[in-house]
Amino acid sequence: MTARAAVSPLHVLVRVWVAMLGALLACVPLVVAVTDWRGQSRAAAADAAQRRGDFDAALALRRQATLVSPRDAALQLSYATAARSLWFFRDTPALQHAADVAYTRAAQLSPHWAAVPFEHARMYAFKERYGRAVALLDPALTLDPANAGLWLERAGYLEQLSRFAEARAAYERCWAIDVVWPCDAGLRRVRGRS
User: Fold this and answer.
1) Are residues 101 and 118 in the same domain?
2) Shared-domain flag, residues 106 and 154
3) Burial of 3: CB neighbours in 10 Å, binned 0-12, 13-18, 19+
4) What is the DSSP letter of 24?
5) How far is the C-alpha of 57 from the C-alpha of 37, rounded, in Å?
6) 171: pLDDT strictly greater than 70
7) What global pTM score does this model have?
8) Which phi and psi angles does 7 have, rounded to 5°?
9) According to the model, what pLDDT value does residue 33 have?
10) Which among 18, 90, 10, 30 has a CA at the least distance from the CA of 55?
11) Average pLDDT over residues 153-177
């Protein structure tokens, strides 16, 4: 028979603590997966409510999804877009604020995603607040300067503001990236006006 070395109580305590920490860390992916699933299931329910025409329920479900998965930029963007859509028609400060906050949160969560500032800019362009729309669109152009669609959008806003020289430059940039007829048509409109 071999003699066993004596194990100190501190050694046992450390081993138990390490085992508990390992078990806890093993649960983290499961918690994240469940949280993601809960957020996505609420987003799916919101889609169904929206298809039924129950826009208030859809907005509430999208809000719940953002609360369940607060680090999901796509859910934040979805909530912002839903709040924006209702704001278009109801024109309430609460919906405007909810959309602005959600767009800001989505941009914070995913600072390299050009879709967020683009969609936020469209919110104000729809209401013909083109100055605000241009300011909100600029970060998207910084993130994706080779996107002809973003330049076309900017050019249209600037044209609406009668800032024709800047609009012409944006249309030219759009045309340089991708030869498409809206850029050409815009260039022809603003050439003589700048």
Assistant:
1) no
2) no
3) exposed
4) H
5) 19
6) yes
7) 0.78
8) -105, 130
9) 45
10) 90
11) 96
The model's confidence at residue 47, banded by pLDDT at 50, 70 and 90, is: confident
96 within domain boundaries: yes
| Distant-in-sequence, close-in-space partners of 112: CB < 8 Å, separation ≥ 6 | 143
Contact 73/116 with Cβ under 8 angstroms?
yes
d(CA 146, CA 167): 17
Quote the Cα angle for 69-70-75, to 5°: 70
User: Could you tell me if 29 and 83 lie in one domain?
Assistant: yes
Give me the numbers of helices (H) and strands (E) for the chain, helices first please: 9, 0
Domain boundary among 110, 141, 169: 110
CATH code where residue 174 lies: 1.25.40.10
Q: pLDDT: is 5 or 113 the higher one?
A: 113
Of 110, 145, 179, which marks where a domain is finished?
110
pLDDT tens, residue by residue, 116-162: 999 999 999 999 999 999 999 999 999 999 999 999 999 999 999 99
Parent domain of 188: 112-194
